[in-house]
Write a structure and sequence with these properties.
The chain has about 425 residues and is α/β, with parallel strands linked by helices. The chain has 13 helices and 13 strands. About 40% of the residues lie in helices and about 20% in strands. Bound molecules: protoporphyrin IX containing FE.
């Protein structure tokens, strides 16, 4: 595709309606540039994009999305295919995501907006792309597959329509590539970061209930990377799916404990099950860690950090607690898990800077005599009680866990203080 940048993506991008299960926080050098909606778009251009958007979200939409993936993955390399979640594709969920996301931009193009309104969604997409090491040149393949699919389905019928879509897509791609470049540039500063893939050895297997903790060691015995707090590391390996061996990749939250680089994985989902069953000494490819939460930490003088985690979301706490501690930030760590057997928080102790609370949802027993253990799900009144003395305005809330949990906690916090500064990550 040729690059033409005159179409105002700002006009049609303002109401992306996909909801990120995973949202990296905005940060100082990770923001979408504000651009004014240009008046150059003609009624014809708007109409074309509106029609495409409608087609993508109509009954035809599922067929378009499916064929888009077929077109995209047809002649691609293994690595390219591996970036897409095969298990989701089988259920059609994955197929619905990307083409529909682009289509949705088009559908709502006529609603006046600004890049400002879109910042979070685009940052979220760029963060997800960075985890998967999406490269700028791959935007061409996506754009080509998208346009080819629309042509195949008779949605694009002439050169004018094709040109309008090319331009609109190009502008969107340029924004995302810019955001991704910033993430990659920043990740390069991580100690002992690497480019491309690197082989890591899975060592020191430790299991706790449904969880496995692996120590990751560079297979070449080179220096260890020190991941920034709140970053993710994407691992990849070939996995058996319905009799086929397919390369898959998945991001995890890396953290350092006792000088070792670790990840903790719940035995759920194709790739995580693969890691759960793996034997010590297995080597696995990885991309260097990307992303960080550090910019989102509160000022230790005036605010607190509140970590609300559930299940494997606890790895986020493992990742950021040491940095919070180092910066002298008062922290409330509130973890929800099924029972004591699955309770990974047992490795974190309360200190003068850290208050720890645990909720067991499927048990009413514990050997732990700590008074900060509760049974049942965390409720709003309990949360209010724990957080009664914090500086709501200046504090930062980090929520990590399954979607239902992050949504519920967000709701409670917003009820307690409308302007709560919340950073969520789904699991
Ligand atoms: C304008 C272009 C693009 C748009 C609007 C877009 C949008 C999105 C969205 C909304 C998601 C879902 C994020 C989430 O909630 O997890 C996503 C995920 C993804 N995108 Fe893109 N994307 C674009 C370009 C690309 C390109 C060039 C690639 C290269 C291969 C790519 C590969 C992926 C992959 C692999 C995922 C993750 C899918 C999964 O979870 O299995 N995207 N993208």
């Amino acid at each position: 595709m040729k690059k033409h940048i005159y179409f105002p993506a700002a006009l049609f991008l303002s109401h992306l309606s996909f909801s990120p299960a995973y949202a990296f926080p905005p940060s100082a050098d990770f923001t979408t540039e504000k651009k004014e909606a240009s008046s150059q778009s003609t009624a014809q251009e708007k109409e074309i994009l509106s029609d495409i958007g409608k087609a993508c979200s109509s009954e035809k939409g599922a067929a378009i999305a499916e064929q888009f993936y077929a077109n995209l993955l047809k002649d691609k390399t293994d690595t390219f295919t591996g970036k897409f979640n095969y298990a989701s594709q089988q259920g059609g969920v994955q197929a619905g995501r990307l083409a529909m996301a682009i289509g949705k931009c088009f559908k709502t193009f006529y609603e006046e907006g600004s890049y400002n309104a879109l910042t979070l969604q685009l940052q979220h997409i760029a963060s997800r792309h960075a985890q998967l090491n999406i490269q700028a040149e791959e935007y061409l393949s996506i754009g080509d597959a998208f346009i080819k699919t629309l042509k195949d389905h008779g949605v694009l019928t002439n050169d004018t329509e094709i040109k309008v879509v090319e331009n609109a897509y190009t502008e969107l791609a340029e924004i995302l590539k810019g955001l991704e470049e910033k993430i990659y540039d920043r990740a390069k500063n991580t100690e002992n970061a690497w480019t491309g893939e690197k082989l890591l050895t899975l060592s020191n297997k430790e299991t706790c209930g449904d969880y496995v903790t692996w120590t990751l060691k560079p297979a070449d015995e080179g220096p260890l990377t020190v991941p920034p707090p709140g970053s993710s590391i994407t691992l990849m390996d070939k996995v058996e799916i319905s009799g086929r061996t397919i390369l898959q990749m998945r991001p995890y939250t890396p953290y350092i404990t006792k000088g070792d680089l670790r990840i903790t994985v719940k035995n759920i989902g194709l790739f995580s099950e693969h890691l759960f069953k793996a034997n010590e000494g297995t080597t696995i490819k990885a991309f260097s860690p990307v992303g960080t939460y550090e910019d989102q930490f509160p000022n230790p003088e005036s605010g607190e950090a509140i970590l609300l985690t559930a299940g494997s979301g606890i790895t986020e706490a493992f990742s950021i607690i040491p940095s919070l501690e180092k910066q002298g930030i008062k922290t409330f760590f509130i973890h929800t898990t099924q029972n004591q057997d699955n309770d990974l928080s047992q490795t974190i102790n309360s200190t003068s800077l850290l208050e720890k609370y645990v909720f067991y949802t499927q048990s009413n027993q514990t050997n732990d005599s700590s008074e900060n253990i509760s049974f049942g799900r965390i409720k709003e009144d309990k949360l209010k009680n724990i957080l009664q003395d914090i500086h709501w305005k200046e504090s930062r809330f980090f929520i990590c866990g399954p979607k239902g949990f992050t949504e519920q906690m967000t709701k409670y916090l917003k009820n307690l203080y409308t302007d709560s500064q919340i950073i969520t990550q789904g699991r």
